[in-house]
Write a structure and sequence with these properties.
The complex is a heterodimer of chains A (126) and B (107). Chain A is mostly beta strands and 126 residues long. Chain A has strands at 3-7, 11-12, 18-25, 33-39, 45-51, 58-60, 68-73, 78-83, 92-105, 107-116, 120-124. In chain A, a hairpin with a 1-residue loop joins strand 9 (92-105) and strand 10. Chain B is mainly beta. In chain B, strands 1, 3, 4, 5, 8, 9 and 10 form a seven-stranded mixed beta sheet that branches. Chain B has a three-stranded antiparallel beta sheet with strand order 2-7-6, with no helix packed on it. The mean pLDDT of chain B is 96. Chain A binds chain B through residues 35, 37, 44-47, 50, 59, 61, 95, 97, 100, 102, 109-114, 116-119, and chain B through 30, 32, 34, 36, 41-44, 46-48, 51, 53-54, 83, 85, 87, 89, 94-101.
Chain lengths: 126, 107
């Protein structure tokens, strides 16, 4: 059974830092591209960052670039995101998600974010 | 860039609901649809414009025409009431983006 379990969400002051974790089980974590997606209270989904299966390629949304670092430890099957210089507008539920890749036709394409965790709430407030 | 969705769609049970998502990049990049019920994590419904994800009922289908993709729910049921988000990527395929979401209300 696939499980993604986020942790680390808490209340933090503006300008502070926080590291979120996402423990994975039930699938080949070391072979999976992983994402962080967030959702502010009452708002829509916002893509945050992506990391390749081996951790060498990382990309970020413009809204967090320079303040957020995505990383992973395949030996611990855990995904991380370091949130720095936090702002009130970073308040959100942070989800980790696995991206399925379809290579059945020769070329490889994304088959979407097929597994999601339950999310962890980060509140930035003084 | 942005993916544009209508904020809300309302249908009666048994009717067909159509939710659109528009962007100039959609002829070049695949679209994906997610269903999110209140207080729950999103669930993948459609991938690569038209493919139904595992375990998703056949009443859910996806289509694409030019700069618009459409999620169609045939024979809507009360349990389909949820927020629906389209997702794609920029022209490089690297940066993902979500639409603003559409709240489906079953009357």
């Amino acid at each position: 059974q696939v499980q993604l379990v986020e942790s680390g969400g808490t209340v933090v002051q503006p300008g502070g830092s926080l590291r979120l974790s996402c423990g994975a089980s039930g699938f080949t974590f070391s072979g999976s591209v992983m994402h962080w997606v967030r959702q502010a209270p009452g708002k829509g989904l916002e893509w945050v960052a992506v990391i390749s299966s081996d951790g060498t390629q990382k990309d970020y949304a413009d809204s967090v670039k320079g303040r957020v670092i995505i990383s992973r430890d395949n030996s611990k099957t855990t995904l991380y995101v370091q949130l720095n210089s936090l702002r009130v507008e970073d308040t959100a539920v942070y989800y980790c998600a696995r991206e399925s890749i379809d290579c059945s036709g020769g070329d490889c394409y994304s088959a979407g974010l097929d597994y999601w965790g339950q999310g962890t709430l980060v509140t930035v407030s003084s | 860039y942005e993916l544009t969705q209508p904020p809300s769609v309302s249908v009666s049970p048994g009717q067909t609901a159509r939710i659109t998502c528009s962007a100039d990049v959609l002829p070049k990049q695949y679209a994906y649809w997610y269903q999110q019920k209140t207080g729950q994590a999103p669930v993948l419904v459609i991938y690569k414009d038209t493919e139904r994800s595992s375990g998703i009922p056949e009443r859910f289908s996806g289509s694409s025409s030019g700069t618009t993709v459409t999620l169609t729910i045939s024979g809507v049921q009360a349990e389909d009431e949820a927020d629906y988000y389209c997702q794609s990527s920029d022209s490089s395929g690297v940066f993902r983006v979500f639409g603003g979401g559409t709240k489906l209300t079953v009357l």
